[in-house]
Design a protein that fits this description.
Order of helices and strands: HEEEEHEEEHE
Radius of gyration: 23 Å
Number of helices: 3
Structural class: alpha+beta
Largest sheet: 6 strands, mixed
CATH topology of one domain: OB fold (Dihydrolipoamide Acetyltransferase, E2P)
Shape: globular
């Protein structure tokens, strides 16, 4: 006569499917929490700070605020920063770190973007630089592999 074997689940053990689901849920929660409003601070129209790191957003140039060469540049820089702040405050952000266009072995140093990292910030899937460019608060600024072109002054032609 064959023995009857009964299998009992041990209480407190999590099955592999449930474990994967819980891990995925945790990763999603962390991703949402990481880039929610308040975790990104706007420094100026093309620089942000998050988790103690500064990022120069690439693909566009916004007018300066503290280093402005004329009052009009400062005013436009303040408008660009305020608009970027509005975009960030709405949330649904995605920050992707990219390689900076600096000479070899200078990334992360003062000789490369003043020690800032480089990144692309998207809000609702759209590059924030493109939004600022479209609204006249920034202009395209595309760098090469190891260097960037000279920045054009903002004060020429401003009245």
């Amino acid at each position: 006569m064959a023995d009857i074997i009964t299998l009992k689940k041990r209480p407190g053990r999590i099955g592999p499917r449930l474990l994967l689901f819980l891990i995925a849920l945790l990763v999603l929660a962390l991703a949402i929490a990481y880039w929610t409003p308040g975790t990104i601070q706007v420094v100026d129209g093309d620089t942000i700070r998050t988790k103690g790191l500064a990022y120069r957003l690439v693909g566009f140039d916004a007018p300066e605020i503290s280093g402005a060469m004329c009052p009009q540049e400062r005013a436009l820089g303040q408008r660009a920063a305020a608009r970027l702040r509005m975009i960030v405050d709405r949330g649904n952000l995605e920050l992707t770190e990219v390689r900076c266009s600096c000479p070899s072995e200078t990334e992360g140093t003062q000789r490369c973007n003043y020690g800032r990292r480089c990144g692309i910030l998207k809000a609702n899937g759209e590059d924030v630089g493109q939004i600022l460019i479209r609204e006249g608060l920034a202009r395209p600024y595309v760098c090469g592999s190891y260097s960037c072109p000279k920045r054009k002054p903002w004060c020429q032609g401003m009245a």
